[in-house]
Fold these 2 entries.
Entry 1:
Amino acid sequence: MPVDAHIHFANLFQRDPEFPGRFSSAAIASCGASHDPEEFAWSEAFRESLRAGGGPLPRLSYGIHPQAPRMEQAEFLDSLARGGRIDVIGEAGFDFFGDRPEFTRGPETLAIQRRAFEFQLDLALKTGLPLLVHLRKAMDLAFEYARPLSRLPAVIFHSWPGTPGEALALLGRGVEAFFSFGAIVINGHKRAASSLAAIPASTILSETDAPWQPPRGEAFCRFEAIGPIVAAMAAIRLLDAEAMEAQIAANWVRAFGGGS
Ligand SMILES: [Zn+2]
């Protein structure tokens, strides 16, 4: 079964209103991300709608995204995590890509993003839930937090932005890290390919991040991109696509705590 470790169902629905019907028969193991209560309600209802079909039910994540680090979300997130309504905390992390003023690294933006990240890291430690991490131009912070991260059952780095050496160093610091790759492997992103080629097979995950991160030339990413993404990953790992898919499915069970 293909694995989509990170997808935004409600955002995808806005771009592709026909997707739910196709998704229900696609048999993809997935984790749907939400970052505000309305989006989460949509995702929960979507998951319910799939129950009748008998296919795999998506896992759900909820996080305070570093691009919108609003602490008003904290109470809601806390109630979801403690109430067993989410499987993963995140996306949580740091974004200093610089494409907007609030994503430029400075004392104030760093302090704001730290507050949101530390709250979520702490909640993951208290609840024992895995953490889904978003990092852009902030790799040093992953190492700064490596010690508490190493106490979590799993840390999933979505759209892994680092080098092979950084991936191996995080594993060396005892972090139960998983590195997830999306359409950038189709788009010929060199660093992603070199990381994917070098990391242990047991740490690899696949994702679409749909509707974001489209394959080059497409207006948005469809959930069906998971097939070409896994095929491109297999080519980089010198495996056939079935073997790659099976490896990722085994990793999914470890990262997301079993089940589908
Ligand atoms: Zn995302």
Entry 2:
Amino acid sequence: MVVAVFDPEDGARQDKREGLFGGVRRAMQFLSNENLFVWLAGLKRDYEVYVPLKKGPFRFYERYTAPSPDIVIGEVRATEPLKGFFTPVKEKVAELFNPEPLRKKQKPMAIVGVKACDLKGFLVQDQVFCKGCQDPFYNRAREDNLIISADCTQAIDSCFCLALDVNPYPESHFDINLSEVTGGFIVEVGSPKGQQVFDSHKTLFQEVDTMHVNERKEGRKQVVAEVERNIAKHGVPHQNEYQGMIERNYESKIWEDEAKTCTECGACTTICPTCHCFALVDQKEGAEFVRYRQWDSCMLKDYARVAGGGNPRPQLWMRLRNRFEKKFDFFPQVAGLNACTGCGRCITACPANIDIRRVLKRLVHNE
Ligand code: SF4
Ligand code: SF4
């Protein structure tokens, strides 16, 4: 959809693709590369700070300890999804028969370099854990933590965020955003919490100059063009075309055809920033009974199995269909957004080459 909005860079009215988060104009400041590390050291007093670190061609989150040339604020999304910060793979949620949830005392986290696709991932998780089941652990973690997002400064082949109306640069739902430019970052504040943090480190920031503003504008345009090229190359349909595609293809051979090579490993759901299914597991530990919440995957055969052994989705292709139905039919119906960010993680993680872009294309075009 094309709408007229205020360009955040220069306030000029222009036509642009409407991103999921819309265009909002904010005051900008400049943070030099040297001051970034002074700032991170300052944040460490109040937060456990996590930053993306480059390892070969990939980026992984690690706790920040000291300045390192391997810290990459820009570039592209991390390999792992960020949902693990708020719902760990396995977490003890109750012990004995105490109805009160366990209250763990821990420092809040500051997660740095979060990309726009992962901000959408948080929105989907919020729907489930804040508005849906009101998970006290998740809610508290989301309230306490600081999200310092960053523009993508490149795209990789699997990125197709624009098909889901996510621009490759954050526009809202962050506390502070960093856009990498020569010598440092353009900084924007996006929430009262972000403003507080910004104010308490004010002396590190300076006025931003036009050269940097123009550089950011140009950089954003280039990354958008890279993602658009990916989308064109793989023929990924835009989300405006998704309505009704699951219903139309419910009995289609597409599902069996695509599931032929599936190994039922669950990598696609594990690595997905929006997938959120979990199981509650009770077990005895010493003399006590404890309850864990642990990630589950709808691609696994036992996921929907009930007492007596009955299973509504005994075939792999049914589970694949269910995964798409959940993301592109059920979730938009109940929450008003597709449960996909276009991050492409499931494409690179799948050992069976089951590519979500190809499945979407087949579904939209009834192939
Ligand atoms: S379904 Fe795939 S592309 Fe979409 S959010 Fe999940 S991992 Fe990313
Ligand atoms: S990652 Fe690929 S092979 Fe593994 S469960 Fe998902 S679709 Fe099947």
